[in-house]
């Protein structure tokens, strides 16, 4: 049995889908009604990281687990690793971020992820870290404005990022969960190209068959927008990360997806075409 967490997110959901094609998978969800992964091979367990009895139920009989944590303040990695160790789990595959391995990254979120990785590393379990660059799916936040106004508003439109398709991350995760030889590895994951927000807007325009306009947000406007959604330490971390991207720190392309899966990482144009309906292209 393999346990997957984060199944209402883009990576965890895809990991569970892939695993369910070939064998049993159990998913942990705080709100089971939001789980869209279904089928005869899927078992849904209600619970959350602070719910130790729920964790124990979900981890019973589990050989390996895919771990996604999002809280900037709760010790969820420590909680999960401790419960997994006591349950006899042998291998944790943890979704992390590429900035963890970059000395120039010192924002709040990156520091927390380094602490989270350390908790897993020191748990005594075998581990694999998937250090992913920015998800291509983050551009879904542009969808409402694209549908209503035909405009993309973002900070620093000409700063490049080697963003990665979440489906590629999921395929690497499944390899690590189901095949030997990935223990003790920290995989840096990127897409096959460094692309800017302006270029992403152009790709979306081609896919949708309609003209889109890019408007660059000022720094204060971006800050206000972030503070409406996140606490200040998290908002500040996103802005610090944007400055690193502006300086070229996120443009490096790494071949890990090809090395692990045997096929090249998907470019943004493929991701955009596969998700065009979310931005307003009608089907058929």
UniProtKB/TrEMBL annotation:
Top-level taxon in the UniProt lineage: Bacteria
Protein name: NmrA-like domain-containing protein
Domain NmrA-like stretches: 2-243
InterPro entries for this protein: Ergot_Alk_Oxidoreductase, NAD(P)-bd_dom_sf, NmrA-like
Source lineage: Bacteria, Bacillati, Actinomycetota, Actinomycetes, Kitasatosporales
């Amino acid at each position: 049995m393999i346990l997957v967490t984060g199944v209402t997110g883009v990576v965890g959901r895809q990991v569970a889908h892939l695993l369910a094609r070939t064998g049993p998978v159990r998913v942990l969800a705080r709100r089971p009604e939001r789980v869209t992964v279904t089928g005869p091979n899927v078992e849904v367990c209600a619970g959350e990281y602070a719910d130790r009895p729920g964790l124990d139920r979900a981890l019973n009989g589990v050989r390996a687990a895919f771990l996604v944590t999002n809280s900037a303040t709760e010790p969820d990695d420590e909680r999960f690793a401790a419960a997994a160790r006591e349950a006899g789990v042998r291998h944790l595959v943890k979704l992390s971020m590429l900035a963890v391995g970059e000395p120039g990254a010192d924002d709040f979120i990156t520091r927390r992820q380094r602490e989270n990785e350390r908790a897993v590393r020191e748990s005594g379990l075998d581990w694999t870290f998937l250090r992913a660059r920015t998800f291509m799916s983050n551009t879904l936040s542009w969808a409402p404005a694209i549908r209503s106004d035909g405009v993309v508003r973002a900070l620093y439109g000409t700063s490049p990022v080697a963003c990665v398709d979440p489906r590629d991350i999921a395929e690497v995760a499944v390899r690590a969960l189901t095949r030997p030889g990935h223990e003790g590895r920290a995989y840096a994951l990127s897409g096959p190209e460094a692309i800017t927000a302006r270029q992403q807007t152009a790709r979306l325009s081609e896919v949708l068959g309609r003209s889109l306009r890019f408007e660059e947000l000022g720094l204060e406007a971006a800050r206000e927008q972030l503070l409406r959604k996140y606490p200040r330490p998290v908002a500040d971390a996103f802005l610090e990360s944007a400055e690193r991207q502006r300086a070229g720190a996120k443009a490096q392309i790494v071949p890990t997806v090809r090395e692990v899966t045997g096929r090249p990482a998907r470019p943004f144009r493929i991701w955009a075409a596969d998700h065009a309906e979310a931005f307003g292209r009608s089907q058929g």
